[in-house]
Specification:
It is a single chain. The protein is mainly beta. The protein has a domain of 118 residues: Methylamine Dehydrogenase, Chain H (7 Propeller). It contains one helix and 31 strands. The protein starts with a helix and ends in a 6-residue tail after the last strand. The N terminus is likely disordered.
Length: 320
Protein backbone atom coordinates (compact mmCIF):
# COMPACT_ATOMS: atom_id res chain seq x y z
CA UNK A 1 0.00 0.00 0.00
CA UNK A 2 2.86 2.32 0.90
CA UNK A 3 4.57 1.53 -2.41
CA UNK A 4 1.37 2.35 -4.33
CA UNK A 5 1.08 5.68 -2.51
CA UNK A 6 4.67 6.59 -3.42
CA UNK A 7 4.03 5.71 -7.08
CA UNK A 8 0.88 7.83 -7.18
CA UNK A 9 2.66 10.72 -5.50
CA UNK A 10 5.53 10.47 -7.98
CA UNK A 11 3.11 10.37 -10.94
CA UNK A 12 1.28 13.41 -9.58
CA UNK A 13 4.55 15.31 -9.19
CA UNK A 14 5.68 14.47 -12.71
CA UNK A 15 2.31 15.56 -14.14
CA UNK A 16 2.37 18.79 -12.14
CA UNK A 17 5.89 19.57 -13.37
CA UNK A 18 4.67 19.31 -16.98
CA UNK A 19 2.08 22.02 -16.45
CA UNK A 20 2.98 25.51 -17.61
CA UNK A 21 1.93 27.98 -14.95
CA UNK A 22 0.74 31.60 -15.43
CA UNK A 23 3.34 34.18 -16.44
CA UNK A 24 1.24 36.87 -14.72
CA UNK A 25 -2.13 37.32 -13.01
CA UNK A 26 -4.75 40.03 -12.59
CA UNK A 27 -6.96 40.33 -9.50
CA UNK A 28 -10.55 41.45 -10.11
CA UNK A 29 -13.13 42.67 -7.59
CA UNK A 30 -15.31 39.57 -7.96
CA UNK A 31 -15.70 36.32 -9.82
CA UNK A 32 -14.96 37.01 -13.49
CA UNK A 33 -17.79 36.29 -15.93
CA UNK A 34 -16.36 37.75 -19.16
CA UNK A 35 -13.22 39.49 -20.41
CA UNK A 36 -12.27 41.62 -23.40
CA UNK A 37 -8.84 42.69 -24.67
CA UNK A 38 -8.40 46.22 -26.00
CA UNK A 39 -5.17 48.06 -26.89
CA UNK A 40 -3.07 48.14 -23.68
CA UNK A 41 -6.13 47.29 -21.53
CA UNK A 42 -8.01 44.29 -20.20
CA UNK A 43 -11.73 44.66 -19.38
CA UNK A 44 -13.17 42.21 -16.84
CA UNK A 45 -16.86 41.79 -16.00
CA UNK A 46 -17.57 40.46 -12.51
CA UNK A 47 -20.36 38.85 -10.54
CA UNK A 48 -20.48 41.83 -8.13
CA UNK A 49 -21.62 44.52 -10.58
CA UNK A 50 -18.18 45.93 -11.39
CA UNK A 51 -16.24 46.10 -14.64
CA UNK A 52 -12.53 46.30 -13.82
CA UNK A 53 -10.29 47.96 -16.42
CA UNK A 54 -6.68 46.79 -16.10
CA UNK A 55 -3.45 48.06 -17.56
CA UNK A 56 -1.86 45.19 -19.49
CA UNK A 57 1.55 46.59 -18.61
CA UNK A 58 1.23 47.17 -14.86
CA UNK A 59 -1.48 44.53 -14.21
CA UNK A 60 -3.18 47.12 -11.97
CA UNK A 61 -6.76 48.40 -12.12
CA UNK A 62 -6.94 51.75 -13.93
CA UNK A 63 -10.68 52.31 -13.49
CA UNK A 64 -13.83 50.64 -12.23
CA UNK A 65 -17.30 50.87 -13.78
CA UNK A 66 -19.74 50.20 -10.95
CA UNK A 67 -23.42 49.44 -11.49
CA UNK A 68 -26.05 50.39 -8.94
CA UNK A 69 -27.24 47.69 -6.57
CA UNK A 70 -30.72 46.22 -6.94
CA UNK A 71 -33.37 44.79 -4.66
CA UNK A 72 -33.79 41.04 -4.94
CA UNK A 73 -37.02 39.06 -4.58
CA UNK A 74 -36.66 39.17 -0.78
CA UNK A 75 -36.50 42.95 -0.84
CA UNK A 76 -32.83 42.93 0.11
CA UNK A 77 -30.25 45.12 -1.58
CA UNK A 78 -27.68 43.14 -3.53
CA UNK A 79 -25.03 43.60 -6.18
CA UNK A 80 -25.92 42.78 -9.78
CA UNK A 81 -24.18 40.11 -11.78
CA UNK A 82 -22.68 41.18 -15.09
CA UNK A 83 -23.14 38.48 -17.73
CA UNK A 84 -21.15 39.83 -20.67
CA UNK A 85 -19.17 42.84 -21.82
CA UNK A 86 -17.80 44.15 -25.11
CA UNK A 87 -15.74 47.10 -26.28
CA UNK A 88 -15.72 49.12 -29.51
CA UNK A 89 -14.33 52.57 -30.33
CA UNK A 90 -14.23 53.76 -26.72
CA UNK A 91 -17.64 52.31 -25.83
CA UNK A 92 -18.12 49.56 -23.25
CA UNK A 93 -21.20 47.36 -23.59
CA UNK A 94 -22.49 45.82 -20.35
CA UNK A 95 -25.19 43.16 -19.95
CA UNK A 96 -26.34 42.96 -16.33
CA UNK A 97 -28.85 41.34 -14.02
CA UNK A 98 -32.07 43.23 -13.32
CA UNK A 99 -35.28 42.78 -11.34
CA UNK A 100 -37.77 39.93 -11.85
CA UNK A 101 -35.21 37.80 -13.66
CA UNK A 102 -34.81 40.15 -16.61
CA UNK A 103 -31.62 41.77 -17.90
CA UNK A 104 -30.52 45.29 -18.76
CA UNK A 105 -27.95 46.63 -21.22
CA UNK A 106 -25.76 49.67 -20.59
CA UNK A 107 -23.32 51.68 -22.68
CA UNK A 108 -20.39 53.33 -20.92
CA UNK A 109 -18.70 56.16 -22.83
CA UNK A 110 -16.77 59.25 -21.71
CA UNK A 111 -17.28 58.27 -18.04
CA UNK A 112 -21.06 58.20 -18.53
CA UNK A 113 -23.22 55.11 -18.03
CA UNK A 114 -26.39 55.01 -20.16
CA UNK A 115 -29.10 52.35 -19.99
CA UNK A 116 -30.23 51.40 -23.48
CA UNK A 117 -32.40 48.37 -22.68
CA UNK A 118 -34.24 48.29 -19.35
CA UNK A 119 -35.94 45.56 -17.34
CA UNK A 120 -39.30 47.06 -18.34
CA UNK A 121 -38.81 45.55 -21.81
CA UNK A 122 -38.93 42.12 -20.12
CA UNK A 123 -36.12 40.54 -22.10
CA UNK A 124 -34.27 37.51 -20.72
CA UNK A 125 -30.99 38.33 -22.43
CA UNK A 126 -28.18 35.78 -22.24
CA UNK A 127 -25.45 37.59 -24.19
CA UNK A 128 -24.88 40.87 -26.04
CA UNK A 129 -22.03 42.01 -28.30
CA UNK A 130 -21.35 44.78 -30.81
CA UNK A 131 -21.81 44.12 -34.52
CA UNK A 132 -20.78 47.69 -35.24
CA UNK A 133 -20.93 51.02 -33.40
CA UNK A 134 -24.66 51.35 -34.08
CA UNK A 135 -25.77 47.72 -33.84
CA UNK A 136 -25.87 45.01 -31.17
CA UNK A 137 -26.29 41.27 -31.49
CA UNK A 138 -28.47 40.02 -28.64
CA UNK A 139 -29.26 36.43 -27.70
CA UNK A 140 -32.22 35.55 -25.49
CA UNK A 141 -32.34 32.50 -23.24
CA UNK A 142 -34.99 30.98 -25.51
CA UNK A 143 -32.54 31.19 -28.45
CA UNK A 144 -34.10 34.18 -30.16
CA UNK A 145 -31.30 36.16 -31.82
CA UNK A 146 -31.83 39.90 -32.31
CA UNK A 147 -30.05 42.60 -34.29
CA UNK A 148 -30.70 45.80 -32.33
CA UNK A 149 -30.31 49.41 -33.53
CA UNK A 150 -28.87 51.43 -30.62
CA UNK A 151 -29.85 54.90 -31.83
CA UNK A 152 -33.38 53.97 -32.94
CA UNK A 153 -34.02 51.65 -29.96
CA UNK A 154 -35.60 49.04 -32.17
CA UNK A 155 -34.94 45.62 -33.63
CA UNK A 156 -33.55 45.32 -37.16
CA UNK A 157 -34.44 41.64 -37.24
CA UNK A 158 -35.21 38.71 -34.96
CA UNK A 159 -34.94 34.99 -35.58
CA UNK A 160 -35.06 31.85 -33.48
CA UNK A 161 -31.87 29.87 -34.04
CA UNK A 162 -33.48 26.64 -32.84
CA UNK A 163 -36.08 25.29 -30.43
CA UNK A 164 -33.35 24.37 -27.90
CA UNK A 165 -32.27 26.78 -25.16
CA UNK A 166 -29.42 29.15 -26.04
CA UNK A 167 -25.92 28.37 -24.75
CA UNK A 168 -23.42 30.72 -26.39
CA UNK A 169 -22.38 32.48 -29.57
CA UNK A 170 -19.18 33.75 -31.19
CA UNK A 171 -18.68 36.27 -33.98
CA UNK A 172 -16.07 36.01 -36.70
CA UNK A 173 -13.38 38.67 -37.13
CA UNK A 174 -15.37 41.17 -39.20
CA UNK A 175 -18.61 40.30 -37.35
CA UNK A 176 -20.39 39.39 -40.56
CA UNK A 177 -21.15 35.89 -39.27
CA UNK A 178 -22.10 34.40 -35.93
CA UNK A 179 -21.98 30.80 -34.77
CA UNK A 180 -24.74 29.96 -32.28
CA UNK A 181 -24.64 27.03 -29.86
CA UNK A 182 -27.48 25.53 -27.86
CA UNK A 183 -28.37 22.68 -25.53
CA UNK A 184 -28.91 20.22 -28.40
CA UNK A 185 -25.25 20.18 -29.40
CA UNK A 186 -25.98 21.57 -32.85
CA UNK A 187 -24.35 24.76 -34.11
CA UNK A 188 -25.97 27.24 -36.49
CA UNK A 189 -24.07 29.75 -38.63
CA UNK A 190 -25.95 32.97 -39.47
CA UNK A 191 -25.20 36.14 -41.42
CA UNK A 192 -25.51 39.07 -39.02
CA UNK A 193 -26.66 41.49 -41.74
CA UNK A 194 -29.97 39.80 -42.51
CA UNK A 195 -30.27 36.66 -40.31
CA UNK A 196 -29.72 34.28 -43.23
CA UNK A 197 -28.95 30.75 -42.05
CA UNK A 198 -25.70 29.84 -43.80
CA UNK A 199 -25.05 26.39 -42.37
CA UNK A 200 -25.97 23.98 -39.58
CA UNK A 201 -23.24 21.89 -38.00
CA UNK A 202 -24.22 18.71 -36.19
CA UNK A 203 -23.24 15.17 -35.33
CA UNK A 204 -20.07 15.93 -33.35
CA UNK A 205 -21.35 17.38 -30.05
CA UNK A 206 -24.04 15.17 -28.53
CA UNK A 207 -25.14 17.43 -25.66
CA UNK A 208 -25.14 21.03 -24.45
CA UNK A 209 -22.35 23.16 -25.92
CA UNK A 210 -21.05 25.46 -23.19
CA UNK A 211 -18.64 27.60 -25.21
CA UNK A 212 -17.69 28.37 -28.82
CA UNK A 213 -14.83 30.19 -30.55
CA UNK A 214 -14.62 31.36 -34.17
CA UNK A 215 -11.34 32.36 -35.86
CA UNK A 216 -10.17 32.26 -39.49
CA UNK A 217 -13.00 29.94 -40.60
CA UNK A 218 -12.23 27.54 -37.75
CA UNK A 219 -14.93 26.89 -35.12
CA UNK A 220 -14.23 25.24 -31.77
CA UNK A 221 -17.05 23.97 -29.54
CA UNK A 222 -16.79 22.84 -25.91
CA UNK A 223 -19.44 20.49 -24.61
CA UNK A 224 -21.08 18.74 -21.72
CA UNK A 225 -20.42 15.52 -23.64
CA UNK A 226 -16.69 15.99 -22.86
CA UNK A 227 -15.91 16.71 -26.49
CA UNK A 228 -13.90 19.59 -27.91
CA UNK A 229 -15.06 19.77 -31.52
CA UNK A 230 -13.22 21.47 -34.37
CA UNK A 231 -15.04 22.49 -37.56
CA UNK A 232 -13.05 23.73 -40.57
CA UNK A 233 -15.47 25.68 -42.76
CA UNK A 234 -13.05 25.93 -45.70
CA UNK A 235 -12.37 22.20 -45.81
CA UNK A 236 -15.92 21.27 -44.76
CA UNK A 237 -14.41 18.89 -42.21
CA UNK A 238 -14.81 18.21 -38.49
CA UNK A 239 -13.48 16.04 -35.66
CA UNK A 240 -13.48 15.96 -31.89
CA UNK A 241 -11.03 15.41 -29.05
CA UNK A 242 -12.39 13.73 -25.95
CA UNK A 243 -11.78 14.87 -22.40
CA UNK A 244 -12.28 13.21 -19.00
CA UNK A 245 -14.64 15.93 -17.76
CA UNK A 246 -17.16 18.51 -18.94
CA UNK A 247 -15.42 21.07 -21.19
CA UNK A 248 -16.50 24.49 -19.96
CA UNK A 249 -14.18 26.74 -21.95
CA UNK A 250 -12.47 26.86 -25.34
CA UNK A 251 -10.41 29.42 -27.24
CA UNK A 252 -8.71 29.75 -30.63
CA UNK A 253 -5.56 31.60 -31.64
CA UNK A 254 -5.98 34.35 -34.28
CA UNK A 255 -4.94 31.97 -37.08
CA UNK A 256 -7.17 29.18 -35.77
CA UNK A 257 -4.17 26.83 -35.78
CA UNK A 258 -4.11 26.51 -31.98
CA UNK A 259 -6.99 25.61 -29.71
CA UNK A 260 -7.09 25.60 -25.91
CA UNK A 261 -9.76 23.89 -23.81
CA UNK A 262 -10.43 22.82 -20.23
CA UNK A 263 -9.61 19.13 -20.02
CA UNK A 264 -10.15 17.91 -16.44
CA UNK A 265 -11.67 18.58 -13.01
CA UNK A 266 -8.62 20.64 -12.00
CA UNK A 267 -9.39 23.17 -14.77
CA UNK A 268 -6.23 22.24 -16.65
CA UNK A 269 -5.98 23.93 -20.05
CA UNK A 270 -4.83 21.67 -22.90
CA UNK A 271 -3.34 23.25 -26.02
CA UNK A 272 -3.40 21.42 -29.34
CA UNK A 273 -2.77 21.95 -33.05
CA UNK A 274 -6.08 22.07 -34.94
CA UNK A 275 -4.48 20.84 -38.18
CA UNK A 276 -2.61 17.83 -36.82
CA UNK A 277 -4.92 17.23 -33.82
CA UNK A 278 -1.80 16.69 -31.69
CA UNK A 279 -1.59 17.90 -28.09
CA UNK A 280 1.15 20.45 -27.46
CA UNK A 281 1.21 21.19 -23.73
CA UNK A 282 -0.93 21.77 -20.61
CA UNK A 283 -1.44 24.81 -18.40
CA UNK A 284 -2.38 24.93 -14.71
CA UNK A 285 -3.18 27.47 -12.04
CA UNK A 286 -6.93 27.98 -12.54
CA UNK A 287 -8.71 27.14 -9.29
CA UNK A 288 -12.33 27.50 -10.37
CA UNK A 289 -14.52 26.79 -13.40
CA UNK A 290 -13.16 28.58 -16.46
CA UNK A 291 -15.46 31.20 -17.97
CA UNK A 292 -13.34 32.53 -20.84
CA UNK A 293 -10.19 31.72 -22.84
CA UNK A 294 -8.94 34.52 -25.11
CA UNK A 295 -5.77 34.56 -27.23
CA UNK A 296 -3.97 37.87 -27.65
CA UNK A 297 -1.54 36.37 -30.19
CA UNK A 298 -0.32 33.00 -31.43
CA UNK A 299 1.91 32.75 -28.36
CA UNK A 300 -0.16 34.26 -25.54
CA UNK A 301 -3.61 33.84 -24.02
CA UNK A 302 -5.73 34.82 -21.01
CA UNK A 303 -7.95 32.61 -18.87
CA UNK A 304 -10.79 33.90 -16.67
CA UNK A 305 -12.75 31.81 -14.21
CA UNK A 306 -15.38 32.12 -11.50
CA UNK A 307 -12.51 33.13 -9.23
CA UNK A 308 -11.26 36.72 -8.99
CA UNK A 309 -8.00 35.83 -10.73
CA UNK A 310 -7.37 36.21 -14.47
CA UNK A 311 -4.30 34.27 -15.58
CA UNK A 312 -2.00 35.22 -18.44
CA UNK A 313 0.02 32.51 -20.19
CA UNK A 314 2.97 32.61 -22.58
CA UNK A 315 3.33 29.52 -24.75
CA UNK A 316 6.92 28.35 -24.60
CA UNK A 317 8.92 28.38 -27.84
CA UNK A 318 9.98 25.18 -29.45
CA UNK A 319 6.53 23.53 -29.37
CA UNK A 320 4.99 21.89 -32.40
Amino acid sequence: MKTLFVILLLFSSIYASELQMPSASYKADGGVTDIFLAPEKLYAATSVGIVDIFSLKSKKILKRITLKKMKNFLGETSTVKIFSIDYLDGKVLILAQASRGYREIYLYENSTLTKIISASEELSIAKAKFIDKNTLLIALLGNDIISYDIAKHKENWRTQASLSAFSNFALNEDKSEVIIADESGELHLYATKNATLLKSLKGENLDNVFDVAFKNNIIAAAGKDRRCVIYNLKKNSSYYKESHFFIFGVGLSPSGKLAAYTSDEQNTITLFNTDTKSDITNFGGNKMTVSEIIFSSENEFYVASNAKTINFYKIKRGIK
